[in-house]
């Protein structure tokens, strides 16, 4: 089951107030960017965040799962918990690097 348009819009709306929020469809699922940094991975109407040591205490009771085949295990973020969502984004946004620009292919 792929992520629905309604769910990705809701997930992105939960990050409002944390910076400039946008989402992009990638391989049939979505990435939510905050200030152009990839923060939340949304697959099958479930929000995932990378398992990083800086989140261990905050996400100690969180469910864990694999967003797609071949992926590393991630925390499952309760996107309905606005305070938790904003706390996670507040921790991840400053330490997440901007994606490297892609080089244009020359013909």
CA-CA gap between termini = 38 Å
What ranges have pLDDT less than 50 throughout 5 or more consecutive residues? none
The topology string of helices and strands comes to HEEEEEEH
Shape: globular
Largest sheet: 6 strands, antiparallel
Taking Cα atoms only, what radius of gyration do you get, to the nearest Å? 14 Å
- Which strands sit side by side, in order, in the main sheet? 1-2-3-4-6-5
Beta strands, count:
6
Give the tags.
107 residues; six-stranded antiparallel sheet; 21% helix
Kindly describe this structure:
- It is a single chain.
- The protein has a 6-stranded antiparallel beta sheet, with helices on one face.
- The chain has helices spanning 5-13, 82-95, and strands spanning 21-26, 29-34, 37-43, 46-50, 64-65, 74-77.
- It is built from 2 helices and 6 strands.
- By secondary structure, the protein is α+β, with helices and mostly antiparallel strands.
Question: What's this, in brief?
Answer:
The chain is an alpha+beta fold and 107 residues long. The protein has helices at residues 5-13, 82-95; strands at 21-26, 29-34, 37-43, 46-50, 64-65, 74-77.
List the helices and strands and how they pair.
Blueprint: H1 5-13, E1 21-26, E2 29-34, E3 37-43, E4 46-50, E5 64-65, E6 74-77, H2 82-95
